[in-house]
Amino acid sequence: MKLTRKTVAAGVGAAGVLGVALYIAVPAAADPSPSASPSTSARKHQGKGGHEHQGKNGRRHRGHPGAAGLRGVHGETTVRRKDGFHVMTWQRGQITGRSGAAVTVRSADGTSWRWTTDAGSKIRAQGRKSALSDLVNGAQVVVVGDRSGDTRTVKIIRMPKK
Predict the structure, then answer these.
(1) How many CA atoms, within 13 angstroms, populate the side-chain half-sphere of residue 45?
(2) Which of 145, 150, 155, 160 has the fewest CB atoms within 10 Å around its CB?
(3) Is residue 3 left, alpha or beta, with left meaning phi > 0 and alpha meaning psi from -120 to 50?
């Protein structure tokens, strides 16, 4: 069989369609009890691809209509930077401990990670620059940073406004 641009393009297109189909079908098949209840969100077209979305909390959100519903609790991804590959990690949860330059955060699913701060770590509380000492046990936070081995280093800790 001779490989031509059309053959390669057709193969890539078919692989793309299969990938999208699997992306949609696998999570749906994995959920044994799908909900048939209608969505309570309202969408309004704003032109040029923008949307306005009303979330469950009644607030209006601009941008991607699904973004307001994202409620992940922790995760990791590998990214390429100029100096190579790095593992970026994030966590949403409650502070359960603080010792020196380290903070322990526990997510809603029970995952508990220890985060180390350094001179490059940024801490934001109530929408303003803050210090590590301002973060208290029980505070809800979102932490983003890098992981190397078992060490997670904070890039930013943000305690949302009340």
Answers:
(1) 3
(2) 150
(3) beta
**Which distant-in-sequence residues (6+ apart) come within 8 Å of 108 by Cβ?**
73, 92, 93
CA 55/CA 3 separation, integer angstroms: 49
pLDDT of residue 125: 87
CB atoms within 10 A of CB 93: 22
| Averaged pLDDT, groups of 10, the chain, 162 residues long | 63 56 49 44 43 55 48 87 92 94 95 95 90 90 93 93 71
Measured CA to CA in angstroms, residue 150 lies from 9, 61, 113, 132 at distances of 42, 36, 10, 21
pTM for this predicted structure: 0.57
Given a contact cutoff of 8 angstroms between Cβ atoms, the answer to whether 114 and 108 are in contact is no
Q: Give the Cα-Cα-Cα angle 15, 21, 22 (nearest 5 degrees).
A: 90
